[in-house]
Amino acid sequence: MGDGIMFYFSDNYEYFDCLDAPESTRFQLLLEPLLGRLKDVQRPLAYQVVRQFCPEGAKVLEIGAGVPLVMEALRVSHGCQCTVADKYLGKGRGPVDAAKINQSFPDIEFIDTYVGEFDPRLREDSFDAVISVSVVEHMAHSELAAFHEDCVRVVKPGGIIFHAVDVSIDGPADQDELIALLRNFIEHPRLTALAPDRMQTLEQARMDPAVFTLSPTMWRRWRQLAPPEFDFSVYRRIASLNIGMRKMQVP
Ligand SMILES: C[S@@+](CC[C@H](N)C(=O)[O-])C[C@H]1O[C@@H](n2cnc3c(N)ncnc32)[C@H](O)[C@@H]1O
C-alpha cells in the first residue's frame, strides 16, 4: 500500500485540540461534556475526516451511530445527507429506544440493519463516506470480513471508509488479533490509501507516551460499556485505533 495509510492510535494532542475547540463550534454544542473518554476524540475525528475528504452535501452512512450526534453535526455544518444503519437492539450496550431516536433526528434516514448482512436497502456504490465510532470492537472476529466487504460494497468509488475502534494496546491475545485483522482491512484490493503520515504499528503505540488512553477513572467506568468478554482483571491501556481508506475509482 505504501505511503498514505491511515492506521494509527489517537494521541493526547488530538484530545487537547478537542478541549481547546471554541465553544461556538457546532461540534462543541453537540458533544456531551469532554470527560476523557475515547468518544471525545473519536467523534470529532470522524466529523473532521468527512469534512476533509468529502464535498459539501456528501452522502454519509454511519454504522451503529447510537444517538447520531456526528451525523447531525455533519448534516448541519456540511450539508450532508445522512443515513444511519443500526438495529438498536442494544448490541455493544448501545441504545434500544429506536423510535425516540428516529423522532429526535427527523432529517436523518434510519435503516434497521447491521452492516455485514448485505442489506439491499444499503445500495452498492451509494455513499461518499461510511464511518463508525466504537462499533467494530463489539463484533465477533469471525464477523469482520463480511462487515468490511459490505462497507466496501456500499461506498462509492472514490469515497472513504473510516472506523474508530476501542482497543487495548496491552493485549490480551484477542486484542492483538483484532488489531491484526483490522490492519488487513487496508490491504483490500478495492481500497487505497487515505491520508499521508498516519501509519503506526501496535508496537510503536505501546512505546509512545503520547497515545491517548482511558484514564483509570474512565477505564473503571468503561466496564459498563466494554464488550462483555473483555477481561477487566488486569488494567490495560485502552486507545482509539483509527483506520481510514478510500475506494479505488476502478477495480
Ligand atoms: C457502543 S454503541 C456505539 C454507539 C455510537 N457509535 C457512539 O459512539 O456513541 C455500538 C452500536 O453499534 C451497533 N452495531 C453493532 N454492530 C453493528 C453492525 N454490524 N451494523 C450496524 N450497527 C451495529 C449497535 O447496535 C450499537 O448501537
Automatic annotation (TrEMBL):
Keyword Nucleotide-binding: no
CDD domains: AdoMet_MTases (cd02440)
Residues in Methyltransferase type domain copies: 61-162
Keyword vocabulary terms for this entry: Plasmid
Listed Pfam families: Methyltransf_11 (PF08241)
GO MF annotations in UniProt: S-adenosylmethionine-dependent methyltransferase activity
Gene3D superfamilies registered for this protein in UniProt: Vaccinia Virus protein VP39
Source domain of life: Bacteria
Keyword Cell inner membrane appears in the UniProt entry: no
Protein's UniProt name: Methyltransferase type 11 domain-containing protein
Organism: Megalodesulfovibrio gigas (strain ATCC 19364 / DSM 1382 / NCIMB 9332 / VKM B-1759) (Desulfovibrio gigas)
